[in-house]
Amino acid sequence: MNNVLIKNANIVNEGKILNGDVYIENGFFKEIAPQISAKSPNVQVFDAEGKYLLPGVIDDQVHFREPGLTHKATIETESRAAIAGGITSFIEMPNTNPQTTTIEKLEEKFEIASKTSYANYSFMFGGTNDNLEEILKVDSKNVAGLKLFLGSSTGNMLVDNPEVLEKIFSSTDLVISVHCEDEETIRNNTAIYKEKYGDDIPIELHPIIRSEEACYISSSNAVALAKKTGARLHVFHLSTAKELELFSNKIPLKDKKITAEVCIHHLWFSDEDYKEKGTLIKWNPAVKTSKDRDALFEALLNDKLDVIATDHAPHTKEEKDNVYTKAPSGGPLVQHALPAMLEFYHKDKISLEKIVEKMCHNPAILFQVEKRGYIKEGYCADAVLVDLNAPWTVNTDNIAYKCGWSPFEGTTFKSRITHTFVNGSLVYKNFKFYDVKNGQRLTFDR
């Protein structure tokens, strides 16, 4: 393994931006100082003058579709797209085919990733109404956490038995991550509009069908159950202003028992974009109003929302081009999440330090990821160099997703990810990928 020296970088880390050098040895940050000289002739030197060095992004919610749905994506293709977006670690969801609801199926995924992933990886174990025995076998030091679908599930992963839910919440010390939408509300709303429009329901009605009420009923129930049982709860992809009242910014993240995240699409798009984007921005939970979007952004800044994630969930363009009831929800985001957040920086909506806090530091704190998420001596050397003044436009020639499309197609970003390092190795540089599958299994300090 070549050792690496990054010179003259603006290092964004722990609430500060400092100019200096970073020396990487054997995959770890060895020294961070104002000036460092190359230690030996075989050191790879990068002059970062004018660029910003960020810790590698940790994305706590992705769907990479393997096994079983590999016509949409694979761990190899989407981890490759992730490193192009500065995401060096990911936590992948259990609703694959077969589902990740047994220890055997979980370990099969780890085996695939160990051979094919460009980025560091972990997986959520999936809960069902009848697999508590398997949940209790999960080793919390080696698995990111437990995922429960309290709405919008696939297969048999909807956990809708109140007694089972309480037993799960009471029995595990894993971080319980939840998708919150009330199925009964959604079914009733869908029936109303299906009677009027058939299958071709206007996409603009998506946030009316998957409504604020549906989100709030489910998330408030989950929060109440967590408070009752003392469970460690993390609510995925908040989409409404109303839900924010359920969360607090009164204590540090490391002490919180109930946390929440926001996803890129809920910060970027609003219901005004359905007319242009159609089903390409059909997500569950739905993209809602500009008022909701603004409230989510404010909550991100004031620390009611703890992390930024992608909920990367690709489908083929052909699948997305169907009528409303047949078009699947979800879209690809890992390649464009950090550039999108940097666009908000250019608009003076968020600082670089806050972006790093929410995308790098806080996921590491929340999931207790060992030795990642920071540029610190002794930590694994996951890092991203960013040029804030190198505009580029998203198009089919530079989209890395297997599905070949992006909801950002045609968007010009001012900032470019120029270099991505995973465990000290250069894996990506200016739209060029190196065939270095250097991802490692994440471990957790629990």
TrEMBL record:
Matches recorded under Gene3D superfamilies: Metal-dependent hydrolases, Urease, subunit C, domain 1
Entries under Pfam families matching the protein: Amidohydro_1
Superkingdom in the source lineage: Bacteria
InterPro entries from the UniProt entry: Amidohydro-rel, DHOase/Allantoinase_Hydrolase, Dihydroorotase_CS, Metal-dep_hydrolase_composite, Metal_Hydrolase
Cofactor(s) for this UniProt protein: Zn(2+)
UniProt keyword terms in alphabetical order: Hydrolase, Metal-binding
This protein's record includes keyword Ribonucleoprotein: no
SUPFAM superfamilies associated with the record: Composite domain of metallo-dependent hydrolases, Metallo-dependent hydrolases
One annotated GO molecular function: dihydroorotase activity
Top EC class of this enzyme: hydrolase
EC nos: 3.5.2.3
Domain (Amidohydrolase-related): residue spans on this chain: 52-427
Function: Catalyzes the reversible cyclization of carbamoyl aspartate to dihydroorotate.
Family the entry assigns: Belongs to the metallo-dependent hydrolases superfamily. DHOase family. Class I DHOase subfamily.
Record's protein name: Dihydroorotase
